[in-house]
Amino acid sequence: MEFVKCLGHPEEFYNLLRFRMGGRWKVIPKMDQDSLSSSLKTCYKYLNQTSRSFAAVIQALDGEMRHAVCIFYLVLRALDTLEDDMTISMEKKVPLLHNFHTFLYDPDWRFMQIFTDHIGQE
Fold first, then answer.
1. Lowest mean pLDDT among 10-14, 49-53, 66-70, 87-91
2. What residue ranges in the chain does DSSP mark as E strands?
3. Which residues lie below 8 Å from residue 24, measured CB to CB, with a gap of 6+?
4. pLDDT at site 117
């Protein structure tokens, strides 16, 4: 169905194809990894591991907007992962979701329950 919609806008199909065939490197501005803080380097590492398609779109943004959207995407992805995990009891999940915003300010906070539960099941 989406392909049929694309037929009404052939220029979009052409641009998408050109982007996928290597044109993205002309669109995505170069980012000097050496000038990034260690925190931003870590964010981009996780972004690239999490979603190649979103990573490409986010890295095509300019300057500070790129960094803000990268962080925003990772925070929402973490929140969504927590919310979607059916192995966490509601008694644990609800307080985690309600307090999630406070954990963002604590660099030592970790939630390893997801990983330890899955490892224990193997």
1. 10-14
2. none
3. 56, 60
4. 47
